[in-house]
Amino acid sequence: MNFDKHLIIAVDFDGTIVEDAYPKIGKPKIFAFETLKKLQNEGHRLILWTYRHGERLDEAVKFCKDNGIFFYAVNQSFPEEDFKNDASRKINADVFIDDRNIGGFIGWGKIYQILTNETPNIPEKKKGFFDLFR
Fold this sequence. Notes:
Blueprint: E1 8-11, H1 32-41, E2 45-48, H2 54-66, E3 73-74, E4 95-97, H3 108-116
């Protein structure tokens, strides 16, 4: 993707930011928070778009906040949105990141590459003593 503007990115929680363990919170997916922080630092707006609601939603938002991610909005297009049942619940976003995409979740490294046209800087694994015998 080659966008000349900042994106509004809607991100699912279970199975996307964390391993799917609903109603519990799973372990963070590899590079999820690092990628989200980098996108946020580049000026993109992140919206948490999840099935969770009530106490379970509050737990997910707190978990993300504890890991350095503060969402522009949660389950709505903008923070001040007043939801009424006379409109669709599909939110306004440029990109939706979800584990339920056709083909499944592609991983945060690939997502970052698609959104920024950059290759993430992943440190090389250091060789250990036993690598001498390979």
